[in-house]
């Protein structure tokens, strides 16, 4: 009788790897899952959500891998949501298992079905990008503020039409120090992915 009352990962009936970092959770109800989604977005968390079901054979096969990944990527939150336990919040899910990947609180990828290598690669991808857009935004805002305060004339930035690169900035200020120029050069030489526009600064 007690086994029937177990939910989430405990209710899967599998011998799963022990999570060592406290970054693996189960959503056992619609309200619980709503709280999880709110937490991911409000705290700009990098996360992987696994939508599965206790009756799904493929879900059971990939679940141990999902739990092992939580130990391999301690900075990422791993959430398991059983579609039968969270029927309202998972009604948009059409396939099990479905994996959704969040970076800095925003959904950036989705994967259907199993595949240990695919799951690992996509998890590694969001792990590499975790916090990058926030870091870029912070650096860009600081550099732009320094330029604005030190420039004797308005700043003109010439942008290369290639979307993944920015050409060397044309700064119309002779008063910018060598240090400021070095920071700006390093900052704008990175990919534009995740960068704010000047109007957002």
UniProtKB/TrEMBL annotation:
* Thioredoxin domain span: 29-119
Classification via CDD domains: TRX_family
What phylogenetic lineage does the species belong to? Eukaryota, Viridiplantae, Streptophyta, Embryophyta, Tracheophyta
Q: Which SUPFAM superfamilies match?
A: Thioredoxin-like (SSF52833)
Query: What's the protein name?
Result: Thioredoxin domain-containing protein
Species of origin reads Citrullus colocynthis (colocynth)
In terms of superkingdom, the source organism counts as: Eukaryota
Q: Which InterPro entries match?
A: Thioredoxin-like_sf (IPR036249), Thioredoxin_domain (IPR013766), TRL33 (IPR044193)
Q: Which Pfam families match?
A: Thioredoxin
């Amino acid at each position: 009788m007690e086994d029937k009352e177990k939910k989430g990962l405990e209710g899967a009936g599998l011998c799963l790897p022990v999570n060592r970092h406290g970054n693996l959770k189960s959503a056992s109800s619609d309200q619980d899952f709503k709280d999880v989604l709110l937490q991911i977005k409000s705290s700009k968390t990098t996360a992987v959500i696994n939508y599965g079901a206790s009756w799904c054979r493929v879900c059971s096969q990939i679940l141990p891998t999902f739990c092992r990944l939580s130990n391999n990527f301690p900075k990422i939150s791993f959430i398991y949501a059983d579609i039968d336990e969270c029927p309202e919040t998972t009604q948009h899910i059409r396939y099990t298992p479905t994996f959704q990947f969040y970076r800095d609180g925003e959904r950036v990828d989705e994967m259907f079905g199993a595949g240990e290598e695919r799951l690992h690669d996509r998890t590694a991808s969001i792990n590499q990008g975790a916090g990058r857009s926030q870091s870029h935004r912070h650096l860009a805002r600081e550099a732009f503020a320094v330029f604005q305060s030190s420039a004797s004339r308005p700043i003109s930035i010439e942008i290369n039409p290639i979307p993944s690169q920015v050409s060397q900035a044309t700064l119309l200020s002779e008063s910018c120090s060598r240090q400021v120029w070095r920071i700006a050069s390093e900052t704008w030489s990175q990919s534009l992915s995740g960068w704010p526009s000047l109007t957002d600064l």
